[in-house]
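Recap slide: dolichyl-phosphate-mannose--protein mannosyltransferase, sequence and predicted structure.
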Amino acid sequence: MVLSELYWDHHIPLPKLGPLQSRLVTAFVALVCFINSYDGDFVFDDSEAIINNKDLNPDTPLSNIWKNDFWGSNLSSNSSHKSYRPLTVLTFRINYLLAGGLHPIGFHMLNVALHCVISVLMIDVFAILIGGLVHDGRGAKLSLSPKASFLAALFFASHPVHTESVAGIVGRADLLCALFFQLSFLVYCKAFQGGDKKFSVLWIFGSILLCAVAMLCKEQGITVLGVNAAYDILMVCNLNIFEVAHQLLSRRKSADIGGLVRSGLFMRLALLFLGGSFLLYARWRIMGTGPPSFTEVDNPASFAENVILRIVNYNYYYSLNAWLLLCPWWLCFDWSMGCVPLIKSATDWRIFWPLLLWCCLMGLVYQALCSQDSNKRRTLTFGLVLLVIPFLPASNLFFRVGFVIAERVLYLSSAGYCLILAYAVGFCSCHWKKHKVHYNVGKNLADRGNQSAAVKYYREAVRLHPKYVHAMNNLGNILKERNELKEAEVLLSAAVNIQPDFAAAWMNLGIVQNSLKKFDKAEQSYWNAIKFRKKYPDCYYNLGRLYADLNRSIDALNAWRNATMLKPDHSLAWNNMVILLDNTGNLAQAELIGKEALKILPKDHTIMFSLANVLGKQEKYKESEGFFLNALKINPNVASCHGNLAVLYHRWGKLDLAKRHYELSLRLDPSAPGTKENYNMLKRKLELRQRTVG
């Protein structure tokens, strides 16, 4: 899938680092924030989960971790909390073995290391959620939001609400669950690497398997399937939920259901649903088909007799969780034992906080669904998905939980908050001036093909902010297409003077200068673009066109060859190589290049057409005919293809077939150059043959 570059990403006040540097910085920040916990002792829940847990002892059979809960109690026991996390317990046992006993430093260091790894992986997760899954011609992953994803990962790495998960050893369950949650999501995304709406069922099964592993670390892992489904619907299939709902409610023609079926969406959702159902059923069986039992002290709101009171207090708990994400000024390891008194009256002022929370959430939901800005919709929607879905198991909506508030359950949900916060920073950075509004409107109009209106808004954006290089570049592009080359050159020259490393603007400037026949300047502009973006196949392609205009054939071929090396499916570069070699009389080499191209692009009718012409000139009529006919199967309405095939038949002596394709060519394009003259010559030849026979 290909998405436009984020307009707000480059406004984020961070340096633009390479992938390796951003990961190292994120890991360093995570390490610095939590390394002070390395010499802590076993505290609070650690005593039950580690010190008193016999499953950690090497003398206890390893099979016991698969029969007991997280605290070492048998799952069939009435006192069991039913928290089945054998893989987390296994890591505790490994810590015990490596340290030769219960020495907390090893336990703490592994927690810190896991948090560093998870923070680094968050860069990839955020990059996909913000900018989509984009690859270059060689299949390497590209990030359209390097600063935004880096900033969100930094927020995640340093958020204080993670203290309990990282500094408390029992938080290992949340860390491992988050790690395999991320891996499950990233593997699900790999299912779509093939492009052209193809997907790999094998990768989807791999994602479900990693979801199962996440569940064996903590129950919350099942929620990754919901995030995967949301990603599939909103990003892969690019569905606008608001528009679909509006069409259904207004009884107008709804979204293209057939298209969704062909894309495989329903099949993928069915796989996720069946996989999730199987995992939940297996978990239910392991639990003994009965929920855990908790006391009123553990979760007083769930024991309130009045349903309204339960709902109000649950929502108050949600608002406290939201406040911990927004302002983690006071943190607590245990919120039970009356730390949060119940709301029992409508006059309790604390009712204001749930109301405020829902007003904020509704505002975010409205923006996520109804905004005209697709980047904004996508980022806010995935922020809410990542905020809400992992929190659902702790929400008391499906079953009673054994706590009032637990900061460790916010470990995954905080990623959604960090994503929304990063968007807010980017939004404020680029929208504090009015020029952004005009730029966004102009971009949307240009995307819809309304270039005249787009020019008006781009001009206003540049007027309000004379150094806004992206508006200059986009306006220059439109002016270039409208053949207003002088103004386009001025704008693009200004853009690269303001931002000398703006590779796209250098390339566009080169195209304009080439059109103005300023060939030396155009060549320098192209090389500047390549200097600032080493792997730039489109720039090499345009550089090749410049060299071809200057009759520098060897340089042109080298430039186009570079384009195809960087992007093997660059059809135009392949085709131009074949045409140039044909025009310069290098027919054998043109044939080799054409056949090499078709191995990579077997259905490219333009390359078939060019190769057929080359073969025809070599009098390889049969082979040439095959490529012409294959090209016409793919695109039967190309007048030039019918015309050149007719010429081939004409030379070959198959005059009736030549006549048929001349007529087809003229029917498609009556003014096709040379075709009418050739057709008239053929008719005279046929008449002469007929008179001779007669």
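The first strand starts at residue 134 and ends at 135.
The chain is about 65% helix and 0% strand.
(End of recap.)
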